[in-house]
Every structure is written in structure tokens, then in C-alpha cells.
Q: What sequence folds into this?
């Protein structure tokens, strides 16, 4: 900035000019005249000088005021446009009262700059200019404040709308709250609360939007609110969400198609699972009490039919022919159960029957009639399984006698008997459940219901199996603790065991392990773990069982299991290398399988013997070397003792594997090999004993 020299005072003061002392001349009068002329000239000079000084002062004042004005303009521009401190950078809520705040700040600059001026004349002119600019500045700030106030209000309303949409989702199960959030209302204290609709109207009023815009925007937002409600409901119950959509289709608007598509899948999944679960729950064993059995029979019999196989009206298993005094069509489950008790349950003396016979006999009484049921009771001799066979024969007789009349019932009759048969075992009839699920009309729900029934049935099977295995394992601990220990098993535990498992417990532990079971366990070390190994206990000798169990459940169990797996891999690799793939992959029960069982047993025995002899665990290389020696093809010397021809009796040889020789001495080492091995030992200073020579030969790659 160019600095203008300041002249706060005139540089030449007229009062300081040198005065001229004029003395009257002694001369004549013309001297006086000359003096007067001189005085006039001096006076003119002084006036000119004073005018020059005043002009200079005025010029300096103007320059100083311009400088101050420029400083003020810079401050004004900075407070207007600066990206960090200018009021135009202040947005939204922060712009409230911005004109006052920024105006006061700029006003402070007037005072500060004015104080730096040198005289009142400068200050007066500057103040007038600055105040004019301050007024303009305040006007601009007030305009920005007003604009940002609208922006803030719109943002606030928009934010309120978003929040209320979120609250709609949270309160989707509270219709009154949802209504208040959409259309406004009063809170518990009676204060007015704006809804989504009121916030839209406020925005429209500020922005000058027409009523049509308000209606369209409100419909759009309300549709979004209903969509949020339906979306939240889907997580709780797709069926409930579907019902809500059906009741609010107009309000949901353009979202209907998309929601319908999503809901169809979700509803099918929910209903399919629910129907599958209901089928499963309704297929529980009949039990042995009147209520449990009657409830199952009510479900099996079904509702009202005008004519059931010529027996007239039938409802819930009670027909008009056998019960002419009953209002069949108006029969309720409660009335039906009362008739069940009086005319069917008591008629066959169900309370006096064995618990397992009650359901079979009572169901027969309802289905065939009490008289027929009593006859079957007598023929069955109290055996529920035989009773079911008698009923099966009766159904077959009826269908054969009149296929057109009874053939249509064959499927449901078989399902009925399947359920009773399963119930005798404490189980559900999976076939009956799947048949019922297959009757569902909707293909998607049917598929899901079938899957759900199968899943629940399998889960129950596994749970029961686990429960049974736990009971069997506990019983084995007692039975095998001592000879005759099975007699110490609790009656409750014993009654829950299968007959074949009871026989195994009575027999006690075998002295020798079942070869197939032992080989299977050797191949799969994971089965040695507690929870798996117990099921094989009755097939293993006590020593083998403890060997497997301790390896997988004692110290360093995981390392031992891993080592056993590695040993298995090495064993398989050794078999393949020896050309014994056929034996390795043999099917159970074949001669090759028996060979593998024998070989594996000998291999394990030899490893154990070597480890005991060396007092340490063999390395992988040592085990591989042992297997190589065992599988080496050799010539074995034998003596024939059972020939048909006397002249053939005597020694002979045959090809075999080293492990097949009854004695190491039977293995014939070629002379050249024996001499080479002996020479090598002598060279190294090792005594060539027969055992050393044999081991060296078996370890060599030389073949016959």
C-alpha cells in the first residue's frame, strides 16, 4: 500500500513568518508611500502562504481518510467473504443473529481505525463513510441470516421427518403412535406434536410450494413409513406383515409390488416351517392316558363329512349310524372326547389294558367299532404288534371286498397304522408326517414343510441316539467293571436297552478283539475319542479297548491321534510301494481283507515288540523300514505233510512275503546275498550273526 505523508498540522505557520519593522523614513512623504506599498506586498505574501498551507492540510486529510476507508473496506470484505471468518461461510443454525454479531465486530473496526486518525476532521469524514458501508454490510448479513434461517428450518424439518420415519419403524406394533408420527397430535401433557405431514407443510410454506406438492410429498413419505412398518414386521412375522400390507395397499403406494414379491418368499418360508413344526408336534407318540390318546385320534379322524363309507354323517370319528342320538354336524372336540370316553374307551376297558395296548385298541374301537376292537383284543393275546397286524388284515379284507367303496381309504388307513407302530417304539412315523406335509397345496410351503419335518425328525433321532448311547456307555462301565457286573445295572437303565445290547452286556468283554472292528479303529484314530469308542467296547478285548481309549483321551492325546494317522498313511504308502494295492483296498469279508487284517495286526505287534526292545518310540523311518522288511518278497522253505503222494513228501519252497513266514529261519537267503552281507559285516568289524544277516537281507532292495 502506498503510504501518504501525514500532515496533521500546516508545515508553515503564518504567525512564525519574520516580521518586518518599518520605521518612518526621515525622508519626505514619498517614503511613506513606498512603505505602505511594501506592507501591502508583505500582506499579500502572507495570505498566499496561508492558502498553500491550508490546501496541503486538506490534501493530507483526504489521503489519510482514503487510507482509513481502505482499511475498513478490507475488514468488511474479510468479514464477508473469507472462507474461515466471513459470514457467508456460516451456514444453517450457526447463522442465527449473524448480522448483529458481525455488525458489532465491523463497528469495532470503525472505532479502532478512527482512533488512529490525526484530527477530528479526518475522523468526521471517515466516520460518515464507514457508517454508510456498515449499514450496507449489516443489510447483506441480515439477508444471509434470513436465507440460512430458511435453510436451517428446512434441514430441521427434513431431519424431523427422517427421525419420525425411524420412529415409525420402532413403533410398528403401536398403531396409535404411528398415527401420531404421521399426522401429528398431542403428547401426554397436551402439547401439540408435529407429524410428518406438518413438517412437509412447513417446508412448503417457506419454499412457496403449491398444495399439490404437499399432497404428493406427504403420500410419498407416508408410503415410505408403511414400507418401514412392513419391513420391520417381516422380521417378526411375515404373515402379519402380509396382512398389514393387504389392509394398507393404497397408503403403501408404489412399494406394493416390491413388498409383495419379498413377502411371498418370507410368508412361504414362515408358513412352511410352522406347518412342518405343527405336523411334527401333532405326530408325537400317542402316550398311554385317555387325554393324550384321544387328542391324537381326534386329529387323525378329522372334521365333518356328509357320508363316511356308508355310515352316514361322520365328524371327529363319530358317525350317525353308531350314534343316532348325536348332533354330528354340531359336534365339538370337547363333546367328541366325552363320547370317546363313554362309548369307546370304557367299552373296551382301556383303563385295565397294558399302557402300550391302550392307543392301539382305542383307535381300533373308534375306527372299527368297540365290538370289533374287543374281538381283535382277544385274538391278539395282548400283543399290540399282533393287534396292528390284525387291523391291517381287516383293512385288506374290506378293500378286497369293495375296492370302489374302501380303496380311497387305503392310504389314510396305512398312515394310521404306521403312526401306531412308531408310537409303540416311542417314535413318530416319519412316513405319516411326510405324507401329511405332501398334502399342502402351495408348492413352496409344501417343500419347506417337508424339509422342516425331515430336519426335526433327524434332530430328534440324533438326540435319542445320543441319549441311548449315553445310557449304554454308562451301563457298559458297570457291566464290564467285573465278571457278572451287568446285574448291577439299574432297572431303569436296563429297561431302556435293546435286547441285543443286553446280551452283549451279559456276555462280558471278549478275550480277543473282533478283527474287523480292531482294523476299522486302527484306520480311523478319531473314533478312539470318548463318546465314540464306547460303542465298540463289547467287541474289543479289555487291553485293546484301553489301548485305544488311553491314546485318544490321556496325556498328549491329540499328538498320539495325529501320529496314528501318519502311521496309517505310511502303512498305505508302504503297501502300495510293495504292490499290494488289491489287499489295501479290499472289501470287508474277502480273503484280501482278511490278509490285510492279519498284516495290520502283525505290523502293530512287531512295532510294539521293537519299541519295548529298544526302550523308545520308533521313528517314522524306523517304522517304514520295519514294514519294508515285512513286505519283502522272499523264498520260504516248507515241509509237505499232507500230500496225496508219498513220493512228494519232504521239503519244498514257495514264494511269499516275509511276514507270512512262520519263523525267520524259514526264509531262504540266496548264497550270493549271504556272502556279500557277511563280507560287508567283516569289513566293518561287525560280527555276522544269523539275525543280522537276515535283517540286512530283508532291508535290502534285492528281490528274488
A:
Amino acid at each position: 500500500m502506498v503510504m501518504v505523508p501525514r500532515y496533521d498540522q500546516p508545515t508553515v505557520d503564518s504567525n512564525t513568518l519574520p516580521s518586518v519593522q518599518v520605521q518612518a523614513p526621515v525622508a519626505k512623504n514619498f517614503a511613506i508611500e513606498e512603505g505602505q506599498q511594501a506592507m501591502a506586498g508583505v500582506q499579500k505574501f502572507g495570505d498566499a502562504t496561508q492558502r498553500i498551507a491550508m490546501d496541503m492540510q486538506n490534501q493530507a486529510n483526504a489521503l489519510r481518510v482514503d487510507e482509513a476507508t481502505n482499511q475498513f473496506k478490507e475488514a468488511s470484505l474479510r468479514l464477508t467473504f473469507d472462507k474461515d471468518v466471513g459470514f457467508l461461510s456460516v451456514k444453517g443454525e450457526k447463522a442465527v443473529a449473524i448480522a448483529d454479531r458481525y455488525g458489532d465486530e465491523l463497528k469495532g473496526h470503525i472505532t479502532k481505525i478512527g482512533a488512529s486518525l490525526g484530527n477530528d476532521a479526518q475522523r468526521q469524514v471517515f466516520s460518515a463513510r464507514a457508517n454508510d458501508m456498515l449499514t450496507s454490510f449489516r443489510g447483506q448479513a441480515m439477508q444471509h441470516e434470513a436465507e440460512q434461517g430458511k435453510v436451517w428450518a428446512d434441514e430441521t424439518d427434513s431431519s424431523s421427518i427422517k427421525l419420525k420415519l425411524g420412529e415409525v419403524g420402532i413403533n410398528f406394533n403401536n398403531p396409535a403412535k404411528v398415527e401420531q408420527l404421521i399426522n401429528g397430535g398431542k403428547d401426554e401433557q397436551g402439547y401439540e406434536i408435529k407429524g410428518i405431514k406438518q413438517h412437509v407443510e412447513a417446508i412448503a410454506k417457506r419454499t412457496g410450494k403449491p398444495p399439490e406438492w404437499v399432497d404428493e410429498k406427504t403420500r410419498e413419505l407416508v408410503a415410505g413409513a408403511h414400507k418401514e412398518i412392513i419391513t420391520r414386521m417381516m422380521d417378526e412375522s411375515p404373515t402379519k406383515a402380509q396382512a398389514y400390507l393387504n389392509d394398507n395397499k393404497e397408503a403403501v403406494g408404489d412399494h406394493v409390488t416390491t413388498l409383495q414379491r419379498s413377502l411371498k418368499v418370507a410368508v412361504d418360508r414362515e408358513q412352511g416351517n410352522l406347518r412342518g413344526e405343527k405336523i411334527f408336534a401333532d405326530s408325537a407318540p400317542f402316550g398311554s392316558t385317555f387325554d393324550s390318546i384321544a387328542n391324537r385320534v381326534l386329529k387323525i379322524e378329522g372334521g365333518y363329512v356328509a357320508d363316511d363309507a356308508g355310515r352316514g354323517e361322520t365328524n371327529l370319528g363319530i358317525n350317525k349310524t353308531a350314534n343316532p342320538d348325536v348332533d354330528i354336524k354340531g359336534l365339538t372336540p370337547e363333546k367328541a372326547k366325552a363320547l370317546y370316553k363313554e362309548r369307546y374307551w370304557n367299552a373296551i376297558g382301556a383303563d385295565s389294558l397294558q399302557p402300550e395296548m391302550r392307543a392301539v385298541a382305542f383307535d381300533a374301537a373308534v375306527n372299527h367299532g368297540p365290538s370289533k376292537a374287543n374281538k381283535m383284543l382277544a385274538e391278539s393275546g395282548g400283543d399290540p404288534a399282533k393287534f396292528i397286524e390284525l387291523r391291517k388284515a381287516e383293512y385288506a379284507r374290506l378293500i378286497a371286498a369293495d375296492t370302489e367303496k374302501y380303496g380311497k381309504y387305503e392310504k389314510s388307513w396305512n398312515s394310521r397304522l404306521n403312526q401306531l407302530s412308531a408310537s409303540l417304539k416311542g417314535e413318530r412315523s416319519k412316513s405319516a408326517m411326510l405324507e401329511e406335509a405332501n398334502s399342502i397345496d402351495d408348492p413352496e410351503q409344501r417343500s419347506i414343510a417337508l424339509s422342516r419335518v425331515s430336519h426335526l425328525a433327524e434332530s430328534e433321532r440324533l438326540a435319542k441316539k445320543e441319549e441311548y448311547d449315553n445310557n449304554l456307555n454308562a451301563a457298559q462301565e458297570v457291566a464290564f467293571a467285573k465278571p457278572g457286573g451287568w446285574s448291577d445295572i439299574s432297572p431303569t437303565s436296563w429297561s431302556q436297552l435293546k435286547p441285543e445290547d443286553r446280551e452283549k452286556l451279559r456276555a462280558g468283554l471278549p478275550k480277543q478283539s473282533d478283527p474287523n472292528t480292531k482294523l476299522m479303529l486302527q484306520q480311523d484314530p478319531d473314533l478312539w475319542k470318548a463318546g465314540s469308542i464306547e460303542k465298540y467296547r463289547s467287541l474289543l478285548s479289555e487291553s485293546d479297548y484301553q489301548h485305544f481309549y488311553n491314546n485318544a483321551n490321556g496325556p498328549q492325546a491329540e499328538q498320539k491321534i495325529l501320529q496314528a494317522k501318519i502311521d496309517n498313511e505310511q502303512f498305505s504308502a508302504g503297501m502300495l510301494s510293495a504292490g499290494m494295492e488289491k489287499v489295501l483296498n479290499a472289501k470287508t469279508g474277502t480273503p484280501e481283507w482278511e490278509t490285510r487284517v492279519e498284516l495290520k495286526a502283525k505290523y502293530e505287534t512287531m512295532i510294539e515288540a521293537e519299541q519295548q526292545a529298544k526302550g523308545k518310540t520308533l521313528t517314522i523311518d524306523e517304522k517304514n523300514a520295519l514294514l519294508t522288511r515285512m513286505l519283502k518278497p522272499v523264498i520260504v522253505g516248507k515241509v509237505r505233510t499232507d500230500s496225496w503222494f508219498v513220493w512228494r513228501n519232504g521239503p519244498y519252497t514257495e514264494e511269499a512275503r516275509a511276514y507270512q513266514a512262520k519263523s525267520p529261519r524259514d526264509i531262504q537267503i540266496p548264497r550270493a546275498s549271504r556272502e556279500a552281507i557277511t563280507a560287508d559285516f567283516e569289513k566293518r568289524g561287525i560280527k555276522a550273526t544269523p539275525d543280522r544277516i537276515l535283517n540286512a537281507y530283508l532291508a535290502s532292495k534285492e528281490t528274488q
Observations:
- The CA atoms of residues 681 and 687 lie 6 Å apart.
- The two ends are 114 Å apart (CA to CA).
- The beta strands are 185-186, 192-193, 314-315, 318-319, 633-640, 650-657, 667-668.
- The mean pLDDT is 86.
